[in-house]
Amino acid sequence: MIELTKREDQIMQIVWKLKNAFIRDIVEALPEPKPHYNTVATLVKILVKKGVLKSELIGNTHQYSPVDDFDAYREKQIGDIKEKFFENSFPKLVAHFAKKEKLTDDERAELIKIINSK
Amino acid sequence: MIELTKREDQIMQIVWKLKNAFIRDIVEALPEPKPHYNTVATLVKILVKKGVLKSELIGNTHQYSPVDDFDAYREKQIGDIKEKFFENSFPKLVAHFAKKEKLTDDERAELIKIINSK
DNA sequence: GTAGACCTACTAATTTATTAGTAGTTTGAA
DNA sequence: TTCAAACTACTAATAAATTAGTAGGTCTAC
Fold first, then answer.
1. How many helices (H) and strands (E) does chain A have?
2. In this structure, which of A9, A83, B59, B90 has its CB flanked by the most CB atoms within 10 Å?
3. What's the CATH fold of domain A6-68?
4. What is the distance between the alpha carbons of residues A14 and A24, in angstroms, rounded to a whole number?
5. pLDDT of A48-95, one tens digit each?
6. CA distance A57 to B9
7. A98 and B81: CB-CB below 8 Å?
8. Domain positions in chain A
9. Tens of pLDDT, residues B26-79
10. Chain B residues contacting A, CB < 8 Å?
């Protein structure tokens, strides 16, 4: 299974949100203190090698985007949380958030609709 | 905010589940290839220094348990997932799992009860 | 009392992750 | 055309994380 380091994960979050990005976009999106351009370029190259980003040459610079089926990584992380914190129980997970979230009646209705739609 | 490395997180998961543990329990619970006893001892010591584990001397060996209010760490991780993968939307999160989980009617009923209980 | 198992504290080596420098290329504006 | 900005590839230094060795203490079984 693909494993990402903290920095790598942080970069992936950005690229996911942007759908595709140049190095400079990633640097831009990173919080202060921003790492060196080449630092990001190195990380991105590693991510390409790991097979989680692909690059496309636009003009003479590379644009990066997530490899399509990389959703598996999301699934794993999400599943991990369910297992780690909720004994793999979806109802427990929902109960947790429901308590935290202080839902409005509208939201409740929406959730119930979601649950009932198979 | 407290940050844990992968190994540290892995150890915390074990101690959480066991409620309290000796080093040997942790080594036991770790998957192959099991790290050296002293390796775990070192990590545990770091975790004590970070304030996420506390130790109690039982006989002449230390037993470790999570510091009580360390639930904050869980909260953060859980919240992170919601933010990272569901644009901070609880309904989106529920929708995601509801689709994955193939709920039975009983489970649906249970979830609806959870959602409606304020 | 001594051998073996297991613990401790301390230290340090190794590995992995992160950072960024150098040097050379392209592009566009003055 | 030449300067500056921004990119590339390549390399290497630094920092952080992980691993485990050494030496010494305690307990238990023989």
1. 6, 2
2. B90
3. Arc Repressor Mutant, subunit A (1.10.10)
4. 12
5. 999 899 999 888 899 999 986 666 777 878 888 888 888 888 888 888
6. 39
7. no
8. 6-68, 71-116
9. 999 999 888 999 999 999 999 999 989 999 988 889 999 998 666 677 788 888
10. 13, 74, 77-78, 81-82, 84-85, 90-91, 93-98, 101, 103, 107-108, 110-112, 114-118
